[in-house]
TrEMBL record, chain A:
GO terms for molecular function: proton-transporting ATP synthase activity, rotational mechanism. Keywords: ATP synthesis, CF(1), Hydrogen ion transport, Ion transport, Membrane, Mitochondrion, Mitochondrion inner membrane, Transit peptide, Transport. This is ATP synthase subunit delta, mitochondrial. Belongs to the ATPase epsilon chain family. It is found in: Mitochondrion inner membrane. Gene3D superfamilies: 6.10.140.880, F0F1 ATP synthase delta/epsilon subunit, N-terminal (2.60.15.10). GO terms for cellular component: mitochondrial inner membrane; proton-transporting ATP synthase complex. Residues 34-103 form the ATP synthase F1 complex delta/epsilon subunit N-terminal domain. The gene is des. The keyword Ion transport applies.
TrEMBL record, chain B:
Signal peptide: none annotated. SUPFAM superfamilies: Epsilon subunit of mitochondrial F1F0-ATP synthase. One of its GO terms (molecular function) is proton-transporting ATP synthase activity, rotational mechanism. Residues 58-74 have a biased composition (Polar residues). GO terms for cellular component: mitochondrial inner membrane; proton-transporting ATP synthase complex. This is Mitochondrial ATP synthase epsilon chain domain-containing protein. It comes from Cladosporium halotolerans. Residues 54-74 are annotated as: Disordered. Belongs to the eukaryotic ATPase epsilon family.
Length: 163, 74
């Protein structure tokens, strides 16, 4: 009988607690941005709440915070920095793709390849730069030269962030 | 200002393929071996005319020659 009374007294408090905790399916905490970072073969982030995301957009480097205006940005091959809820930050080098900011603090980044910086070998980058420079300055077909120039752009950006 | 790859007559798809290939090649050996297999593709196609199958060609080779032509004409 006594225990029953305690349970009844506790119930209103429990109800208000639940009302505060309940969040709809699409809600994001006010100062967070919901990030999905997806590659064709792997999802690095799946709708995870983060504080800020810095992206290398074709129109310039930009930092995305909560309540950003909706936007579609083409990404240059470069470094994406994710500042997580706990305060730490993570960096990934993406090979180029698109970032879409949707209403309601949602950010989707799609790229073909993306790896953490420690997965890259500075030596492999250096060797490839030498090779690509040879092709770009050589007398190959126009297509070979154009492709080598793309490779150089990616490699130089990679070398700059590896230092 | 249009991007360099665009003025060279390459498609965005081709540009992304090259950029991703070079990212894969820059990885440390263990990751690189696993990643490089993702860049490989082997597709064949044939054109059917008057109910007869034409010659089966490799899609990659056909793309290469197509891009080379586009690069020349640009």
């Amino acid at each position: 009988m006594n225990a029953f009374r305690v349970a009844r007294a506790a119930r209103p408090a429990f109800n208000t607690l639940r009302a505060v905790q309940r969040r709809g399916y699409a809600d994001v905490a006010a100062d967070k941005i919901q990030l999905s970072l997806a590659l064709p073969h792997q999802a690095i982030y799946k709708s995870q709440d983060v504080t800020q995301v810095n992206i290398p957009a074709e129109s310039g480097e930009m930092g995305i915070l909560a309540s950003h205006v909706p936007a579609i940005e083409q990404l240059k091959p470069g470094l994406v920095e994710i500042i997580e809820e706990a305060g730490g930050s993570k960096q990934f080098f993406l090979s180029g793709g698109f970032a879409t900011v949707q209403p309601g603090s949602k950010l989707s980044i799609n790229a073909v390849e993306g790896y953490a910086l420690e997965d890259f070998s500075a030596e492999a980058v250096k060797n490839q730069i030498a090779e690509a420079q040879k092709i770009a300055g050589g007398s190959g077909s126009e297509q070979d030269i154009a492709e080598a120039k793309i490779e150089l752009e990616v490699l130089e950006s990679l070398q700059a962030v590896l230092k | 200002m249009s991007a360099a790859w665009k003025s060279a007559g390459l498609t965005y798809n081709r540009y992304l393929t090259i950029a991703s290939r070079v990212v894969r090649r820059s990885l440390k050996d263990d990751k690189r071996l696993a990643a490089e297999r993702r860049g490989e593709s082997d597709l064949r196609f044939a054109k059917w005319e008057n109910g007869k199958q034409g010659e089966a060609k490799s899609l990659n080779q056909a793309n290469e020659s197509g891009f080379a032509q586009a690069a020349q004409s640009s």
